[in-house]
């Protein structure tokens, strides 16, 4: 099997995720999250929900590490249904 051909034919699929964190985000934290990636931030007291695209496991772990580095307590993480899938070539 030609693995080079297989890997070059694989499309990068972004799946949409919902990240729930405890409490409200300060303006400084909102700015940091916005600088890190294109995430939509929604206040849902007593939590804050962040929506964003994730390309793979490493990217997911990077986002989680980043949120924790901001001192945020992660309440839950959910992959949203596939109707929100965006494919990039």
List the helices and strands and how they pair.
Elements: H1 3-9, E1 12-22, H2 27-36, E2 40-44, E3 47-54, H3 57-69, E4 74-79, E5 86-88
Antiparallel strand pairs: 1-3, 1-4, 1-5, 2-3
Strand content: 35-45%
Shape: globular
Give the biggest beta sheet: 5 strands, antiparallel
Radius of gyration: 15 Å
Distance between the termini: 22 Å
- By DSSP (H or I, 4+ residues per run), the number of helices equals 3
- Helix percent reads 25-40%
Low-confidence stretches: 1-9
Write the element-wise H/E pattern from the N-terminal end onward.
HEHEEHEE
Could you tell me the number of beta strands? 5
What is the overall pLDDT average?
84
Q: Helix/strand-derived class?
A: alpha+beta
Overview of the molecule:
A hairpin with a 2-residue loop joins strand 2 (40-44) and strand 3 (47-54). The model is unreliable at 1-9 (pLDDT under 50). The chain has 89 residues and is of the alpha+beta class. It has helices spanning 3-9, 27-36, 57-69, and strands spanning 12-22, 40-44, 47-54, 74-79, 86-88. Strands 1, 2, 3, 4 and 5 form a 5-stranded antiparallel sheet that branches. It contains 3 helices and 5 strands, in the order αβαββαββ. The chain has a domain at 22-72.
Pick out its properties.
disordered N terminus; five-stranded antiparallel beta sheet; alpha+beta; 89 residues
Give the gist of this structure:
This protein is an alpha+beta fold and 89 residues long.
């Amino acid at each position: 099997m030609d693995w080079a051909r297989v890997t070059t034919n694989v499309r990068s699929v972004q799946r949409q995720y919902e990240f729930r964190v405890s409490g409200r985000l300060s303006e400084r934290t909102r700015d940091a999250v916005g600088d890190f990636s294109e995430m939509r931030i929604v206040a849902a007291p007593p939590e804050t929900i962040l929506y964003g695209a994730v390309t793979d496991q490493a990217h997911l772990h990077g986002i989680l590490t980043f949120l924790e580095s901001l001192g945020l307590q992660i309440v839950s993480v959910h992959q949203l249904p596939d109707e929100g899938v965006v494919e990039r070539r």
